[in-house]
Amino acid sequence: FVFPPSRRRMVSRGMALILGLAAGSGAMWAANHAHLDVRHSQVAPDGTHPSSRPINIGAFVVTLEGRRAHVEAFLHESGLEDFAVITPATLKTEVNFAQLRAMNKINNSHLVAGEIACTQSHHHVLRQFINDTTLTHAIVFEDDVVPNPNVLRRLQASKGKNGTSSASSSSHVLVSLIEELAATSHTLGWHGLNLGRCYDYCDVDVDLQRVSSASYDGNASPPLRIVHSCRPLCTHAYMMTRDGAEHLLWTKVYRSAEDVRRQEMSRFGNLRYFSVTPRVFDQARAEGGGAGGINEKQGAELPECQPMDDPEAIHENIRRICSASLLRKAGFQ
After folding, report:
1. Residue partners of 302: CB distance under 8 A and separation at least 6
2. Average pLDDT for residues 7-18, to the nearest whole number?
């Protein structure tokens, strides 16, 4: 990897973190890219995509000021600190319910200010992504993100097995993984990829592709793979293509929380939203009692899969919210 001198600086607070990541042999962090007219590109239903197109990734981090220290530590671990610019999140106190209702932008009386502020924060960085026509993909983090230690160990072990020095840090292996995952949008045709799903109905996952950078014969853990899943909630780590970001930004009315809306769009075929399992990124819920981040759900770490404490009720909900085609592929009865 080559880090251009022009990128070796921290830019002023309030801008988006932009990374140029060129995929393929001899990939490097690039300071400048040729203009790519991909704003109106379409993915064929069978997942075909021009694989020769260079992949340029923009990375965005959204945080509340009180979580800035945690975000900086995460970026240091991930090898992104020299390139990262932290974007302030929209505060829930900035949400004007009266104005939104007057403009007919709220269609759900149960939505709270924190959920709307979270959606606005994500839409802000997605607009920045769309406005930069050199970028083909975006990776977005919230301020409670942490690497999944089990996946991180597996990535490092895989690099070591392939002859890479044991000094392979999380920075190199995570960058390589991000690069590989972005390229799968060409072969699988996804619009979005959830890297940190929670409360998903994992029993109806449909396997799509294994991730080669995490393969390691000495590891008994399940292989890292991309799946089509039913309810990939949480938005603390995900990737989007330009088409995916545009789909999300088309919606002008707040009907549900951002993660629920993506699940609904995926169900009805408006968004090809897949997941990586085991999830690559967790949430630092233990810090500060489990609250205080951009996404203020209470409690300890949110599980990747919905606990099966009431199988009958959960199976009924699976039938209700999962698409019929997904259930057929999963062999769910």
Report:
1. 198, 199, 234, 283, 285
2. 34
